[in-house]
Structure formats: structure tokens, C-alpha cells
Amino acid sequence: MSAVTSLPRDEESESLSSLPWLFLRAVASLADAPLTDIAERLRNAMLPYLKSSALVIFTEDCTGRPQKKAGEESIISRVSIAELEKLRPALSGENPVFTEAEIAGRILPVLALEHVSSRAMLVVTDPHPGAGSYGAELDVVKYLWRIAARRIQEKIADAPPSYLLESRAASAERLRVTAELTDMHSTTLETLLAALRSASLNDAAARSTVTDLAGKALISIRALSDRTTTAVEEPVARAFERLREELRPLTRFSGIEIQFIEPPLNGRALPGEVAHAARAIVRGLVLTMMEQTDISRIRTRWDCDGENLLINVRDDGGGVLTADSASVRGLERRVKALTGQLRMEVMPGWGADVFVSLPLDLTTRPARDAAGWNLAARELEVLELLVAGHRNRTIASTLGISENTVKFHVRNLFKKLDVGSRTEAIALAHSNGL
Description:
InterPro entries: HATPase_C_sf, Sig_transdc_resp-reg_C-effctor, Tscrpt_reg_LuxR_C, WH-like_DNA-bd_sf. By secondary structure, this protein is α+β, with helices and mostly antiparallel strands. The chain is built from 16 helices and 14 strands. The strands form four sheets. A five-stranded antiparallel β-sheet has the order 3-2-6-5-4, sandwiched between helices.
């Protein structure tokens, strides 16, 4: 039996003190970051290696909040998805790109990186190295960005029902506002065009120039509307192909054959949260089925009836799965969060057949009476103003009460609605027609 040699106390302390604790703490902070803090934590982690005025993460996986931002308010409050998308063609793999771009309405020097598997994009404005010149610092920045991007993927894959509800409500609201702005500006520009084309205007050169400018502006507005819709929707064929890519390692190393039956190519596009939830549900079902000892094949199929995404996952196991298992119950909660249905048929000796239906449109529920939540009249007024997007100061001014009183009512609302944040309260109110 060999003797165990231990370091003397002073040598052990010296060994520990030589570790890069600042960097390790930054990695640990990113590894457990909630989505709401991920941009701020990433920026703080990068500061010793990369100084910047602002940091923006753009990810299509977060349909409710595609941008996560930290830094100067004048930049993060004005940066747009359209500006970020203009940078994407310049990106190649995960190689950083230094360039100048229009961000928040200004031309700024930027550093841009992309996370290949998720297509998440990082944009840092006014970048300059923390130690005077770029070297190993850039490799550290890339490493930290990969951790943050993977963290975003993990949080979305394991998103709780409350996040899915909030995401869906936010997506619907963003589409509604964009549609209203598009209609308003389109009407204005179409009216302008009609006036400028009028025979009463004799200055042909001026009319031609302004007509051309107005036409280009109209096209830009329509393109922005299309881009916003694309950001919260995913073609069903592309969503299914991403599922295939995610499950490919299992087919390579598990020894179990996974068959994919593709949806129709002309099937309706999926809302982003439905696409992400569908992939997570299938992954969960496949992993659950693979835990069986007598299984050689799993088949997954997607279809669309115009109103629902229809998912079917079937195995050739011994038919020992049950709907009461913890993993299946967890998946069913995710399905119900999107007002969907999960049904399982198990035949001993023949395997399990799971059917999932996810509606593609928001379900409009009748508004609840305030008595259903036991809200006082003032609490209902505060909730209505929250839903309208007002902050505490505005609510206090509108109702003629103090901000502390508003905070008191908001805390009571959280308790009565059984929610943990303003966004959850707003999502719940939206889903009940308030």
C-alpha cells in the first residue's frame, strides 16, 4: 500500500494562490447566470481582457427577448435587430470580426462574433484590449462568449412553463406593435406618394426625387416588418432539421436507430417558442425511451394540420414506460405551458407511442373577473397600468399615490397571482384577456 504524500501548509497555500481566481470566478458567474443577467455578467467577465462601451447579444432562440444588453444606456436603448442583422453576413464561423457598423443610429467600431450551433451573435461596441494590445486576450473573450452562448441554449432548452408563457406573450405583443407601426408609416408614405404624383405639382424633378426616396422608405419599413416576423417564427422544415442535428450524436454512439419522418415542406412556420419547445420535448422523450434495456429503434415524426404542430415519438421497447414517470410528467408540464396536449399509448411487449399536439396560435381566453384573483379595486388599477407598460413612477403619478404605495400593491399582486416578476404578471394578465 503506497503512502499518501500531502503538501505542507505553506506550499498548499502558494499553489492555491497561483490559480487565476479572477478568471475562474468569471467562468463560474457565467455558468449559472440567469438569462436576465447574462449580458451584464459576460461584459463584466470580459472587462479585464476587452474594454467596451456596450455589449449586445442577439439570439433568435429567445423569441420574447432576442436582445440581451449591457453598457451605455444611449446605445443599448436604441440598438435595433435590423442593425445587428446587417453585421451577420460579415461573420465567418466563430472568428471575431473587427469593423465599423451602424449601432443605435451611430457609426461605431465594433467587435462581432457568432456562436455557430445556435447562431447567437455577440456585438461589442468601442472595443479595445484590456492590456494594451490584442493577444491571448482575444482567445479568452472567445472562450467566455462560448460559455455564455451555451448557457443561453441550456436555459432555453430547460425553460420552465413561466418562461414559455412570458416569451409567447412578449412575442405576440412585439408583433402587434410592429404591425401597428408598419400600418401607420405605410399609410403616411402611401399618402405622400399620392400627393407627389398629383398633376398639380409642376416641379417634375422634385416630384421624382421625393417619390424615389419615399418608395425606398416604404420598402425598408416592409422589410423591417418581415424581419421582425422572421425573428419570432421558424420554418417547420428548418426546425425539424435542427432537431435532427441535435439528435445525431445519439444515433452515432448509442447503437439505437433513430428514424426521422419529416413534416411537409410547405407546412406553416412555427412560432419560435413552439419550435424550441418541440425540439426539447422530442429530445426528452428520446432520452427517456433510450433508458430502456430492450430497445433498438425510435421513430419521431412531425406534421402540421394548419393550426397545430403534431408530434409522434414511438419506440420498439418492451412497453414499460408510464405516464406517471417523473421525466414524462416534466415534459407534459412543458406541453401544457403552451396549451398543448400529450397522450401516451403503451402496449406491453410492443413499445410506447407518444402523441403531442402544440397549437400554433395564442389561445384567447375569456377575461377573468377580478374576484377570481381576489384583487382590490386599486390593485386591479395597478395591474392594468402594469399591462400597459408603465413604470412605478408613472403609475404613482396616474393614480395620485406614492411610489412606495405602488410597490406595496405590486407585492400584493405577485402573491395573489402567484407570480415572481412583473413580466410574469403581465403575461398572466394578457393570457386572460386583461
